[in-house]
Design goal:
Shape: globular
Subcellular location: Mitochondrion matrix
Subunit structure: Monomer.
Largest sheet: 5 strands, parallel
Main location: mitochondrion
Strand content: 5-15%
Radius of gyration: 17 Å
Low-confidence stretches: none
Family: Belongs to the adenylate kinase family. AK3 subfamily.
Structural class: alpha/beta
Order of helices and strands: EHEHHHEHEHEEHEH
Keywords: Acetylation, ATP-binding, GTP-binding, Kinase, Mitochondrion, Nucleotide-binding, Transferase
Strand order of the largest sheet: 2-3-1-4-7
Distance between the termini: 20 Å
């Protein structure tokens, strides 16, 4: 590992494949993949004050408000001051980006740009296992048994805001919130944007960028 601690963020709208990109980066470069969704689920199970707050929103399929997710993430990041990490799903808003600024300095921000129609198609075909956060796409990553989680055998659900009628509004909301965050990181010279419709085609460029920052643990071909 490099001697300097590397802090990176992957930004992208719902359905952009940022979770997949983060998993590949984590495996290839040894960065911890810190998912805001995963931390929220852990808070939920823990049953503390923040977990109870978050539960009220998640049960209705809504985005958790700024102040709740910020509290969750700040607590987790404080524990990891000496570690390499990669943030997935945070910051989503300028308020969250400013909170992040107060505890660390980012080295790298990757922004994924996927055509609107591709995102709509991906999200409308997306079903999840609520307890684990496992995501299935009925077109290119379906479960072995239709409507059933591969690991637990429990039923899959479609989030209210993944339903076709809600997707357009959800993507517009993301874009409005993310625009000032993207502009902030662009002005600092740490933003790197990648466009395309397939994660496998974007990945080699992301891998090349990271390779200039930190020595890879695994070659690109291992994916």
């Amino acid at each position: 590992m490099a001697s300097k601690v590397l802090r990176a963020v992957v930004l992208g709208p719902p359905g952009s494949g940022k979770g997949t990109v983060c998993e590949r980066i984590a495996r290839s470069f040894g960065l911890q993949h810190l998912s805001s969704g995963q931390f929220l689920r852990e808070s939920l199970r823990g049953g503390g004050e923040v977990g109870v707050l978050a539960k009220q929103y998640l049960e209705r399929g809504l985005l958790v408000p700024d102040h709740v997710i910020t509290r969750v993430m700040m607590t987790e990041l404080e524990k990891r001051r000496a570690e390499h990490w990669l943030l997935d799903g945070f910051p989503r808003t300028l308020g969250q980006a400013e909170a992040l600024d107060r505890i660390c300095e980012l080295d790298l921000v990757i922004s994924l740009h996927i055509p609107f129609e591709t995102l709509k198609d991906r999200l409308s075909a997306r079903w999840i296992h609520p307890a684990s956060g496992r995501v299935y796409n009925m077109e290119f990553n379906p479960p072995h048994v239709h409507g059933i989680d591969d690991v637990t055998g429990e039923p899959l659900v479609q989030r209210e805001d993944d339903k076709p009628e809600a997707v357009t509004a959800r993507l517009r909301k993301y874009k409005d919130a993310a625009k000032p965050v993207i502009e902030l990181y662009k002005s600092r010279g740490i933003l790197h944007s990648f466009s395309g419709t397939e994660t496998n085609k974007i990945w080699p460029y992301v891998y090349a960028l990271l390779s200039n920052k930190i020595p890879p643990l695994r070659s690109e071909e291992e994916h």
